[in-house]
Amino acid sequence: MEKRSGKTALVTGSTDGVGRLVARKLGQAGARVLVHGRDAERGARVVADIEASGGAADFLAADLSALAEVRRLADAAQATVDRLDILINNAGIGTAGPRQTSAEGFELRFAVNYLAGFLLTLLLLPLIKNSVPARIVNVSSAGQQPIDFGDVMLTLGYSGTRAYCQSKLAQIMFTIDLGAALKGSGVTVTCLHPATYMDTSMVRRAGVRPLSTVEEGARAILNLATSPAVEGQTGLYFNGLHEAKAQAQAYDPDARRELQALSLDLTGLSAEGLAVLER
Q1: Nearest to residue 43, comparing CAs of 4, 65, 73?
Q2: Pairing of strands 8-11, 32-37
Q3: Is 232 left (phi over 0), alpha (psi -120 to 50) or beta?
């Protein structure tokens, strides 16, 4: 990876799994890394790892299951750094477990995997736009399922897999919209399926045997975050290192409009967020 001296990156969910490795690699390449997670002790260990390799890092704690905490994270990032060259929305929860709800009462996977990144990105956008050229990377999945707008919160027929897959498709739909809104601004937005069933605690909790390594997933994420080969590419979905096609609903402008309106409403961003997305 090319040197990232003078660059600043925020990686959500970077105290564990692929996010931790991505944060460490960015730090080793010379970027100042904002490490995010819920556990201060684990965060301190990642910061220490990055500093031991000659990098610079700060830990920002936030529980993304509460939108107030997402707003606090955005405020903390803006108070800590004066530029943000790379935002990687990596934090997420997997398929295991019963239906749960966020602090606001939203279905938990939709809230953490999608809404938190949607809100955080829009709140940090002024800082990102002042740091161009800059990149936003949304860590999605090949597991995608159309959103049922009649029951987005899955109060009927709930399954963890269905919840996870619709939250991941929502990330892709947001990527396409934001990529279009920011075209020509110097900020690119991409998303990806990093690797299949990486050896992470999320995959093991789901009772699945890992099929790939976190190194493989980190390589794909860092490709979108830093590689000159994808410079200027925006609004796209990648499978690993290669551009790919997402589930068909991602390319339905009516569905994306409906998701956008819902997301702005649920996050309380209606006026300011719409101005960004309609530019």
Answers
A1: 73
A2: parallel
A3: left
Widest pairwise Cα distance in the chain: 51
The 10s digit of each residue's pLDDT in 151-166 is 999 999 999 999 999 9
The CA-based angle 143-145-146, given to 5 degrees, is 155
Strand pairing class (236-239; 242-243):
antiparallel
What is the per-residue pLDDT across 99-124, written as a single tens digit (0 to 9) for each?
999 999 999 999 999 999 999 999 99
Question: Among this protein's residues, is 164 annotated catalytic?
Answer: yes
- Side-chain-side CA neighbours of 106 within 13 Å: the count stands at 21
C-alpha distance from residue 148 to each of 71, 258, 268 (Å): 27, 11, 21
> Where do the domains of the chain lie, and which CATH numbers do they carry?
8-277 (3.40.50.720)
Of 163, 160, 177, 112, the C-alpha closest to 139 is: 112
Mention every residue, 6+ apart, whose C-beta is less than 8 A from residue 107: 99, 100, 101, 152, 153, 154, 158, 163
Position 211 confidence tier, pLDDT thresholds 50, 70, 90? low
User: Beta-carbon neighbour count of residue 174 at 10 Å?
Assistant: 28
DSSP state of 251: G
Catalytic residue among 114, 158, 164, 237: 164
